[in-house]
Write a structure and sequence with these properties.
Rossmann fold; 8 strands; 45% helix; 8-stranded mixed β-sheet; alpha/beta; 17% strand
């Protein structure tokens, strides 16, 4: 497999994780506001994107439009731009709106993070929403993630957000709720309780910004959240 030049924009918890995962498959370059100290990767500026084959946007959803506008003038013809946002409808619309037609664009959502890959990546998922990309380019990207044994799911942005409103946004909502009440490990315990605490700890390791973005930018999250709150209220009334 021919090594590509891969630029990751954003070097937070997930950007740094992704850089490590992809380092065997390309030369990794980083664009970040802060200075990075990892000698495996070279830090570059936006103007250097004209030499890059694959650009991965690992920035908060609320910053994505601004970054797309910044990178647009510097992209090499035929390069691939891929986001990794936890919602897809709006980011995919922005990729199509703000990037030139001379580049390939691909929506993606790796369904893992720094906490869930502590053991290995095998059988974890990555979602792809092909937007404007030819088969050769798309296959080359899929082959990288197949090599690291991720399960690849191809889906529309709308279907992604409908499912993720339940499988991700609701899970984070429950975990954040647990973090707001004073419960911790108990001497008398159950497997279910331990799993709840693990859920709480996992979701609160992520930033509050990510939590807000996955709800505010997913057009289906509010309805699921309201249904869950309503169900809790009904259960509480039943007990009274």
């Amino acid at each position: 497999m021919l090594k590509q030049k891969i630029a990751i924009i954003g070097f937070g918890r997930f950007g740094s994780l992704l850089a490590g995962i992809l380092s065997p498959y390309g030369d990794i370059f980083i664009i970040s506001k802060r200075k990075i100290n990892d000698t495996r990767f070279k830090q570059i500026e936006y103007k250097d994107l004209k030499e890059i084959d694959l650009i991965i946007l690992a920035v908060p959803i609320s910053s994505l439009k601004k970054v797309l506008k910044k990178i647009s003038p510097y992209l090499k013809q035929g390069s691939v731009v891929m986001d990794v946002c936890s919602v897809k409808v709006y980011p995919c619309q922005w990729l199509k709106k703000y990037l030139p037609k001379t580049v390939h664009i691909l929506g993606s959502h790796p369904m893992f993070g720094p906490d869930s890959v502590k053991k290995n990546l095998e059988e974890l998922q990555i979602v792809f929403c092909p937007l404007r990309i030819n088969k050769e380019k798309f296959d080359s990207i899929k082959n990288i993630f197949k090599t690291i044994k991720l399960k690849i799911i191809e889906i529309t942005p709308e279907d992604h957000d409908k499912q993720n409103a339940v499988s991700l946004a609701l899970v984070h909502f429950i975990g954040r709720g647990l973090s707001k009440i004073d419960v911790d490990h108990q001497e008398i315990t159950t497997v279910g309780f331990k799993r709840l605490l693990q859920l709480r700890d996992n979701v609160t390791n992520d930033t509050e910004e990510l939590f807000k973005d996955m709800h505010n930018f997913n057009p289906y999250a509010k309805k699921i959240r309201e249904k869950y709150i309503d169900s809790l209220q009904k259960i509480d009334l039943m007990l009274d």
